[in-house]
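Minimal example, chain plus magnesium ion.
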Amino acid sequence: MTIDPSRFEALYGRRPEVRVSAPGRVNLIGEHTDYNEGFVLPTVIPQRTHVALAPRDDRQVRVVSGQVGGDAPFEYRLGGERPRHDWTDYVQGVTRVLAGEGFAIAGADLLVESTVPVGSGLSSSAALLVATARAFREAHALPLGDVALARLAQRAETDFVGAPVGIMDQMVCSLASDREALFLDARTLDYRLITLPPEVELVVINSGVAHQHSSGDYRTRRAECERAAAALGVAALRDLGADDVPRAMALPEPLGRRARHVVTEDDRVLEAVAAIERGDLVELGRLFYASHVSMRDDYEVSVPEIDLLVELARSEPGVHGARLTGGGFGGSVVILARPGEGRRVAGRVKSAYDRQSGRAATVLVPEP
Ligand code: ADP
Ligand code: MG
């Protein structure tokens, strides 16, 4: 799917000059490690957010999204950005931050079209931010590298939209191409792009469970990690190694188990990178299952429905590994399937899950 220029023309009476896009993402492994200043390994998904742009010679911005907000353009003036607490804040945030950093931009007519499911944990927000920033970068040939663009997109989301997000989503959306994963050190922002082996096809299935108190539980986990780090005399749990786990386990419950998840998960990310690079899918799958058990038992962010999806995936012959992806308390699982088996595996896991759980799972990847 790309943007139909005649749709743009119908809206604005002229053709777009710039057409760009950015992908959604899923985290392969490294969960709840980012705020502990550890490692993450997200990858991009096939669904993308497209932005078409025609520059203007005044300072007006007009924008329409094919997904949200209807057909009437939202219109504002550069320098007059005001949060409206809706989707337009992502676009306004990008122009505000670009101007704030001294980039000279003019007004523009914009059209957004996306196949990234909105609000399903595949980071449609980062895809929109990165695609919008790319459109202005291309329109004005801005001297803005991909890392700088990711940081700018993050600032738009934290400072203008007001969502306290980390840098992972914007970095992977901005830096990774198809079939690449981003191995990112959340402390230093050092990163490496890793090509996924041809022997794996990704499947992502949403459980249909959304925990009402997930943001509260998330804050509780973060606070527990801070307490554990302080009690163990380190700046962040990232600074602990496997040798420190016995010491951590002597802390009052549940701090030890929280720390053990973070320490072992950081190690699993490093091991997963090594497994991918030598094409060892059996080991990669083992690490996925181990990560899931750690999130379930030590970090306690899984729910029975998610555990069921992982077990159903595990019983499929064409599957290397599966685990909860994202913050937890519901959400999605990511499954490593054999190439060409993704659709079949997804269909079988979904129908067994729907039957056994009484809920309706949604297959997010491969694209329906
Ligand atoms: P996620 O990033 O997991 O999809 P978020 O809540 O972070 O969920 O971001 C979703 C929000 O991003 C939407 O509610 C909307 O405001 C905005 N958004 C994402 N994609 C689009 C789009 N194609 N058109 C308009 N707004 C979008
Ligand atoms: Mg988001």
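Residues 16 and 54 are 5 Å apart (CA to CA). The mean pLDDT is 96.
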